[in-house]
Structure formats: C-alpha cells, structure tokens
Design brief:
The protein has about 375 residues and is of the alpha/beta class. It has helices at about 50-70, 90-100, 115-125, 155-165, 185-200, 215-225, 235-250, 265-270, 275-280, 295-310, 315-335, 340-345, and strands spanning about 15, 20, 35-45, 75-85, 105-110, 130, 145-150, 175-180, 200-210, 230-235, 255-260, 280-285, 350, 355-360, 365, 370-375, 380-385. Strand 8 (about 175-180), helix 5 (about 185-200) and strand 9 form a beta-alpha-beta unit.
Length: about 375
C-alpha cells in the first residue's frame, strides 16, 4: 500500500453518528453558481440491475447530506442530481446529456460497466470529470484522463485470486466457471486463467454459461471430471448460491474462490445452513468486509440500515466513499474547473470505509483487498492481500 504524505482529505473521521469533520473553508467558487455546486449521478434505479443502482444512489445521497450539514464544498451546498438510466447504454447517454445541460461540474457514475464505458468516452470528449463507484471494466478509465474509478478493475481481481490460490492455498490445479454473457465475469475469468498459467498452475477447465442460467450441472460435471484443487467463480452472489448448491449435490470437494461479486451471499442463504461446510473452505476478495471492526464502517452500516431499512452492500460502501473522494478533490482544487478537479483527483490519498485510496497512472484505485471466508454461514475476514 502506498504511504505518501497525508492528504488534506474532506473528512478524516465520521461525526457524532459518523464522526464527520467539517470541511475546511475555501473562498474560490471556480465557476459554481449561486450558493450551490451541482454534482450529477447516473444509476439504474429501475430495471434488472436496479439493486446496484439503488444502493449506490442511497449512499451518495447520504454522503451529500452529511457534507452539506458540515459546511458543504468551497463554502457552498452540493445540489445533487441523479438520473435513472435503467441499466441501458442509450438511456445512460441521454441521462448524461441531461445532466451536462443542467450545469453539473462532475458526475458520479455510471454503476455497471457497459453504460460506464460509453459515458466515460463522451465525458472525455467533453472534458467532464466522471468517477464510477462500481464500473469494473478496465476499459472505462482507458477512455481518457477525465475518467476515474474507486472500485477494483476486473483483471486485478482475477490476478489477485490466482496469486492467492497458488501462493497462499498451495493449489496446483484450477478450474473456472463464469458467466459468458457478462463483461465483469469474463474479465475476471480471463485474468485469473492467464495469471494461473503464468504461475505454473494447471487449468483443468474453463466453462462458461449463458447469462441468466439457473442450471449449471453440465458445466459442473465437466469440472468434477478434471478434479481441480480450486474452482474460481467470478460471478455475482445470486449465481454463487445456485452454483454452490448444485456443486454440493454433485459431491465436488474442492475449494471455491470468488471476487467482490460474492458480497451478498450471506443474505441469499436466508438462514439455510446446508452450505456452511462448503462455504467454510471458500474465499473471495472484496473492497471491504461488513464484519470489519473499523468503527467508521460499522457506524456507516448502522446508519444506512436505519435510514433505508436495507443492509448496505459493497455498492453502497463504494458509493459513499466515491462522493467523499470527489468532494474532497473539489475542495482541494479550490475550484470547480474540470482540469483543476482532475489534477486534485490524481493527488488523492483518502482514508475511507474501503481503506486508504490513491490512484495509479491509469486512474484506478490502489489499495489492499480484503480476503474473506465464511464461518457458520457468516462472513469472516481472514486478511488483507495485494497481488
């Protein structure tokens, strides 16, 4: 983890309930109008992936309320404007254009990878600062200097878990089961396979399934015949539980690995303990862990639950950190000028719920991952790890 000099972060700690410190005063308005600074957001609030967009949006609103209550940014209140893009690229482009027309100085979003990549390309053409909390496709930030992200990219997670399998679990052979219709899943799967081979591991199988599938028995039968030490499942939590149940029925005795899409497995179990033994030898990397003893994180999780009557997921935690990182950059820039914001983002060293975040030359976050397993059907943090 990078340990540069301590940055002037927007909030070092969260207050009373969340220990939020007030913002330092700054007199320049840098093009902000009136008493507000307009910050936009793009999120799927309806549609098939709305659970992710709702979580990010809830956390963004929560962060904005706290920031405004503690003095705002540059002495002004944040005017938060969110548009529902329904998880669709065309809708996302239309929503982006609407926000730009309303005079936003920066945009948080999008939430999923395909809309994020399309919007990032347009934002770079326009010179609009944009930062995604959860778009993991590596190409998003490759669109240009105006695009940042706070989540790990797909290849990083694949590389990290292949390294962990080899160096920490002692695996000699691996298999991969992935969603061939999802860019998140394929990106991690490809990186995992490539790194596994580089490390001298035998890849016994790499099996894909159609997006939306519920029957994985054919793929699992092939994987069982290959007898791998571990199986990598770079898929979201809904599929994880279905796959593990079918794997258990087939008698697969290997270890299972995953990425941050596994965050959400425990609620999916709904108290069912039949997978406890299998989960106890499963490991996934994540941006954070809900079982962490970090008081700032626990305060956030408690307040989020009280406010929305929902458990905060990884998407909410990342959304919350993202708004604070953006607001911190505007404050340090002393201006809402796009290039000043981008320069300040490049110099970020922000201590948030997911750890201390800096950005590399490709505008991707640099920080450790949390390796998590399960104990009695609940998450259990093992360690932090960096490939």
């Amino acid at each position: 983890m990078k340990n540069g000099k301590k940055a002037k972060v927007l909030a070092a700690v969260l207050s009373a309930a969340l220990f939020v410190m007030p913002l330092a005063g700054c007199t320049q308005d840098g093009g902000a109008e009136g008493d507000t600074i307009k910050i936009g957001a793009l999120a799927p609030l309806t549609g098939d992936v709305s659970q992710y967009g709702v979580a990010v949006n809830n956390a963004l609103k929560m962060a904005v309320e706290e920031i405004n209550a503690n003095g705002g940014v540059l002495g002004k209140q944040i005017d938060y404007m969110v548009e529902d893009e329904k998880g669709d690229v065309t809708e996302a482009m239309n929503a982006y254009n609407k926000l730009v027309g309303q005079g936003v100085v920066a945009i948080v979003g999008d939430v999923t990878s395909a809309p994020s990549k399309a919007v990032a390309q347009r934002a770079n053409d326009d010179g609009m600062p944009i930062i995604t909390a959860s778009g993991t496709d590596a190409e998003i930030t490759q669109t240009g200097k105006y695009a940042y992200r706070t989540c790990f990219i797909d290849p990083y997670q694949g590389k990290l878990m292949a390294t962990y399998a080899s160096k920490e679990l002692g695996a000699k052979s691996v298999a991969v089961l992935y969603d061939s219709g999802d860019s998140y899943s394929t990106g991690i799967a490809d990186a995992f396979e490539e790194t596994a081979r580089e490390l001298g591991l035998t890849v016994t199988n790499k099996e894909g399934y159609a997006h939306g599938s519920t029957d994985f028995n054919a793929q699992l039968t092939k994987i069982k015949a290959g007898n791998p030490d571990v199986v990598m499942l770079p898929v979201y939590y809904q599929d994880v539980v279905l796959i593990l149940r079918q794997a258990q029925q087939q008698g697969l005795g290997c270890q299972f690995l995953g990425a941050d899409g596994w965050d959400g497995v425990v609620p999916q179990l709904d108290g069912d303990s039949s997978l406890n033994d299998l989960l106890a030898k499963s490991y996934f990397c994540s941006q954070y862990s809900a079982s962490s003893d970090d008081p700032k994180l626990q305060s956030f999780l408690t307040t989020y639950k009280e406010k929305y009557n929902l458990d905060a997921t990884m998407f909410a935690v990342l959304g919350y950190d993202t708004m604070y990182i953006l607001a911190d950059a505007i404050e340090r820039a002393g201006s809402t000028d796009a290039d000043a914001i981008i320069q300040a983002l490049s110099e970020t060293e922000y201590a948030g719920l997911t750890g201390t975040t800096t950005f590399d030359e490709d505008r991707n976050p640099v920080r450790e991952s949390v390796i998590t397993t399960f104990e009695n059907g609940n998450y259990k943090v093992l360690e932090t790890y960096q490939a």
